[in-house]
Structures are given as C-alpha cells and as structure tokens.
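Researcher: Let's run the pair from yesterday's discussion. Sequence first, then tokens, for each.
Model: Starting with the first of the pair.
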Amino acid sequence: MTKRNCLVTGASKGMGAVIAARLSAAGHHVALTARSADQLRSTAADLPGPTLAIPADVTASPDPVFAQVENEWGPVDVLVLNAGAAVAKPLTQLTDDEWQGQLDLNLTAPFRYMRRAIPAMVSQGWGRIVVIASIAAKRGEPNVSAYTASKHGVLGLVRSAASELARTGVTVNAVCPGYVDTPMTDTNVTLLAERSGRSEADIRRALERKHPIDRLITADEVADAVDLCVLSAAITGQGIVVDGGAVQS
C-alpha cells in the first residue's frame, strides 16, 4: 500500500496508541495528538516509523494540529478520530455542563476534524476517515445517556459524510467497540465500584459477560477493524461493531 500521512487523536494510550503503532508498523507517517504531552511523546518515541507528537485538546480548533502535519509532511491522508470519554450517571443527575461536554468531545470535535481534513482528501482523490465510536452508537445503555446520544450522533455524521463523499475516493466509517480492555475502562470500573459498593472484580466480570465471547475486547481487535477501513475503498458509511457478537448489526 502507498505510504500515507496519518493523524490519530487520543493517541497517548489505550486504543489510540495501539492504532498509531499499527499504522506506523505498516510504514505510514503517523502524527499523534492528545492532551498529555509527556505520555504522548513517550508513545511516539516507541513507534518504528516517522512520527509527530502534537499535544492538543481535541475540543479546541484543529487548525494548529493540521498545520503542523502539513508543514512537515503534507496533507493528512488517514484521519483516525479516537479521542473520547464517557460520563456515567443517571440522566436526571447530569448537569448541563456534563451534557455539553460529552457533545463537544464525542461529536463536535470529530465534526471539526473531519471538516478540516476533507478538502485536501477530495483534492487528491483519496482519503480515509475512521471514527472510533462505540456500541453505544447502536443501542441504549442505562446511565450513559449523554455518551450514548453523542455516539449515536457521530454515527449519523459518519453516514452522512460517507454519502456526500462516495464518488470522491474518500471513505468515512465508524468502528463501534464493546467494552475494551483499556485504561478508560479501568477508570470507569473504579468509578462504578465506588458508587455501587460492588468490587471492581465483580464489575469487570459483569462487563465481560456482556460479550458472548465472555471477555473484554482487546485494543488490537479494534485496530484490526481500523486496518480494514484504511485498506478498503468499498467499505464506507459503516458502523463496524467489534464486541464479540453482542450487537449483531
């Protein structure tokens, strides 16, 4: 495959770091962005190919991030929008700020990054955009209403953008993982344990049971789906579920 310029958001750890490593191992140039500068640089230093570590808040303007990639390498060819987070609490306890924060991070930021990347991709007749969504983009779960709304929204954004760009050589897809064995899941397990009084082991086991394969999904399995989206010109407008068979969509 032609070597491409890639940008991965939320790339300092977890799924983002694994996806960045996969792209780098394939020979691509990989720019990584996240808020945690030290961890981001450490992750970038471990990659085998050319990298850029660009500390940034994904909810801010994407222009400085893209400008740095463009100045070093040229336009972004592959955009993987991995940055995201969940607020877990009953709907009636959500504040306006928490609601808006979930929309800003999980929906508006991907929209802005996509809007910034698309003109150059269309101009060159090739591009790949992959949003890391969630099975929450496909179904409702209790106590994550803001997260679920934002993920449903981003899947709609993906589908609409894919339809607009279908004849341009640019594909747009979402990968929708179940519960992935990452630091974000560890944090959520700890918070749920504190609120419920249950042990972390019990909560983790309950999450595993949500998947028919009876375990958490690995970050590498999510990266497998990203690879497919990058390689294929015929897969677009999809929400590819990676959850061990729980949501058959």
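Model: Moving on to the second of the pair.
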Amino acid sequence: MKKLIAGNWKMNGTEQSSDALIVAVEEAIQKNPAVLEQCDFVVCPPFLYLPMVKDKTSVVAVGGQDCSDRENGAFTGDISGAMLKDIGATYVILGHSERRQYHAESDVLVAAKAQMANAAGLITIICVGETEAEREAGAQNDVVGSQLKASLPQGVNAQNTVIAYEPVWAIGTGKTATAEDIRAMHAFIREKLVQTLADGANIRILYGGSVKPANAAEIFGVPNVDGALIGGASLKADDYMGIANAVKG
C-alpha cells in the first residue's frame, strides 16, 4: 500500500502563493518520479483556489477541507460534496479537530457529511483524536473509539474512506506523539476497523500532528501508519516533499 501524503493548507495563502506552491510541488515530483512508486499525493487548498491548483498539477490530487451534509438548497455559504466533485476534487477532509472545536461539529454531523461526500464520489478523510486533557485522563481509546463508531457512515470501505488520527494536543503546537503513542493508537484504530468493516484491514490510517521532515521517517516506520495528514509543513514545498521522501520502499 502506498503512503498517502495529504496536505491541509487550511485558511492560508493567496492566488499567487497557492500557484507557486503547487507548481513547486509538481516540479519536485517530476524531478524525482520514483517517489510516485511509494506515495500518493493530495493537497486540500482553500475552496476558491481548488480549481486553479488542480489545473496546475498532473500527479497531485486535490480535495476540499469540508463539505455540507446537504445535497443542495437554501444553505448560504455551504459547499456540497457534489460541487467539490464537479470542480475536480477527489478527496474531502471531514471532522478535523478545528471543525469539531470551533464549529461544534458532532460525530453525527461528520457521519452525515461523509455519507453525502461518498455519495458524490469523493474519498473522505475522516479525522479522529483526543485532547491533551483526555489523554492525561487515560481516556484516549474511549474518545477515539466513540468517534470512530459515530463518525463513519454506512457503506464505508477502503475505496471511499481514509482515517486520520490527529492527537489534538499535537496539532500546530510543535508537540509530537511518541512512536509508542502512535503505534498503540493506530493499532487500536485498526482493530476497531477490522471488527466493524469487511475490508477494515485495508483502510488507510494517516497520522497528523506536527509531522515534519525530521520526524517523518520514524513515524512512517510505525505499523499501521499509512501516510500523513500534514498542516503547516504542507505550506512549504520543500517540507511537504521532504516528508514524502522519508518514505522507505
């Protein structure tokens, strides 16, 4: 299974900087095409730059950072999964901790969004993860297990769904879970997927939480880590590609 290198650009960039970033990534891959034997690539820019980014690359898939749980209608400001698909998106990130925290998104809402996104033909990257307080209380498995159970819609399989484990306390903080922390949680997630889904053994599980070129090789060496969901480091082509180049054949 190839590693999935997913870049979440979040609410960053301009038309000019987004253009420069995807061109630099594309050129880096073209100069080292062997990386495509080990990795699949996707970047998730702000919605309005998505068509431009897609047009600038032949090897990097593009995705949305969120979508609506509705197909269409009077929902001002919302973007449907079908709209993302229509402008060339392949993926969409759902249930990111920032959406759960700042927009009070529940597991039920994440599942409804994922249902609509899958129906539109998108691959969902469904995020789960505990806060620092929850980990300190030893509740990380309960929290992540509950999120997995309630955030995954009917019809989930290895073709339409990716899971991203993102310990909330390690996002944008510079903190990184230890290799043992990651091993234990990814093994737990895999166990839950295998218990509930026919092809749970084949669903990619990404790690997200201050992934950098300096720690990527160690993270990718952990069993059941099938790629990375990268935030800040995906805004610099050298860092994004440095993480991809850390994947060993």
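Researcher: Give me one sentence on the second I can quote.
Model: Strands lie at 3-8, 39-44, 61-64, 91-94, 123-128, 161-165, 205-207, 227-230.
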